[in-house]
Amino acid sequence: MLTLHDPADVRQIAATYETHTPADVTAACERAAGGAELWGRTPGPRRAAVLHAAAALLEQRADAIAADITREEGKLVADARAETLRAAAVLRFHAGEAERTHGEAGDAGDPGTLAYTRRRPLGVVALVTPWNFPIAIPAWKLAPALAAGNAVVLKPSTRAPGGALALVAALRDAGLPEGVVEVVIGGADVGTTLADDARVAALSFTGSNAVGDAVRERVQARGARFQGELGGNNPLVVLADADPARAAAIAVSGAFGAAGQKCTATRRVIVEQRLYEPLLAAMVAEVDRLKTGPGLDAASHVPPLVDKEAQSEVLEAIEQALGAGAEAVAGGRAPDGELQHGAFVLPTVLAQAGPGMTVVDDEVFGPVCAVLPVGGVDEAIEQANATPYGLSASIVTNDLRGAFRFVERIDAGMVHVNRPTPGADPHMPFGGVKGSAGSGYREQGRAALEFFSQSQTVYVQHDLP
C-alpha cells in the first residue's frame, strides 16, 4: 500500500493506492498486447472520437481533479486546474492528428504502379512519467501513443499518481476498449520489469538523468525504442538594455512558479554587469510580493515542494552555496510557524553565485535562482552554455541583433525571447539537447507521432496485364 501525505501539512494523509508487483507488470503487458490488436485496427477517426470525449470529461471534472492533485502533489489549485485543461487540449490536438492522413503518394518507377507511405502503430508502448505535472505529462505521452494506434502500459510516479489515474479514468469512461491502457504503480522493480518486457516496443521516459540513462540502456539493449526528457539547468540571460523591472518579473515567474518544480524552470539568471545591482533589487522586490503557502489557499503564490525529502535536498543545495560564498538576498531557508509542518522553501535569490556551487552547476528542483554577472553578450552565452544540459533558455533584451545572436548560439532545444524559460504549446515540439535529451525524438506537436509509429512504404501495381 502506498500512502501519500499532504505536502502543505505532512501530518495529513492525502491519498492511498494499491501498488503492483513485477508479476502484475507482466500481466499488464499481456493484456496490453491483446488491446493493441484491437486498437491498432480501429480507424483513426474512431480513435479521435474517444480522445475528444475524454477531453470533454476532463473539462467537466477539472475542479475535482485539480483539488485532488493539489492535496497530493502540492501545487497551486489554479495551476492544477490549468494543467487539467491543458491535458484536455493535448487530447484534442492529437484527436485531430488521428483524423488526418499522414503519408505521401506518387507514381513509382515502374509504369502503372502507385507508391505511397502510411504510418503504423508499434504495438505496446510503455510510459514512465514524473510527479511534477501529474496529469499533463501523462497526457502528452498517452495522446499521441493512442492516436497512432498503440496500446499503453503507464507507470506514473509513486509521489503523485492520482492525476494519471484521473486521465485514464476519463479515457475509459469515454469508451476506450479494455486492455488499451494499463496502469502499474510501484518502485524500481516495477520499472525494470516494464523496460525489460519483450512486448514493449518503445518506452517514453521523463525524469532524472541517472534513472533515464539506466532505463535507456536496458531498453535499447534489446532493440526497442527509447524517448527521454531528462534534466535541465535553464539560463535566463538579461542584457544591459533591458528594463530591470520587466526582466525581474520574467525571472521570478520562471524561477518560482510551481515552487521551481518544472524541468524548464529558470535556474540561473546571467546578467550584464551594468544591470546586475538594479536587477537584483528588482528581483528582491518581486519576491517580497510573493506569499508562500498551501496550494489550496487562493492567496498563495509559492506552494510547497512535493515532500519533505525534496525540501531537504533543496535546503542542502542552498546551504552548500552559502558555504561557498553565495549570499541569499531573498529567502534561503524554510519558513517558520504553521508552514513548518509542510515541505516549504521560501523563494530564494542567490547573489555572488558561481561555478562549484550545486545551484549553478546542476539542476536544483525547487524555488532557487542563482544570479551571475557577466561582461557582455558573448560571455553571457558562454556562461549559459556552460552546463551539460540544454533544455530551455531565454533572453531579455530590446536589441534584436543580440536576441538573434543568442538564438543562433545557445545550446537549447527551446529558446524564448523576452519570455520566461517555462512555457510550451501542445502543437509545438518539446525537448532538449545535450544531457537534457535522452534521444532524438521530440514530444508534443506532430513530432510526437514519429516516436509512437513507424513508416511503411507500399507499392501497388494497378495496370495489370
Automatic annotation (TrEMBL):
Domain Aldehyde dehydrogenase residue range list: 5-458
Stretches assigned to coiled coil: none
Keywords noted in UniProt: Oxidoreductase
UniProt-listed PROSITE patterns: ALDEHYDE_DEHYDR_CYS
Top-level taxon in the UniProt lineage: Bacteria
Gene Ontology MF, one: aldehyde dehydrogenase (NAD+) activity
EC number: 1.2.1.3
A Pfam cross-reference name: Aldedh
Gene3D superfamilies for this protein: Aldehyde Dehydrogenase, Chain A, domain 1, Aldehyde Dehydrogenase, Chain A, domain 2
PANTHER family associated with the record: ALDEHYDE DEHYDROGENASE-RELATED
Protein name per Swiss-Prot or TrEMBL: Aldehyde dehydrogenase (NAD+)
Species per Swiss-Prot/TrEMBL record: Conexibacter arvalis
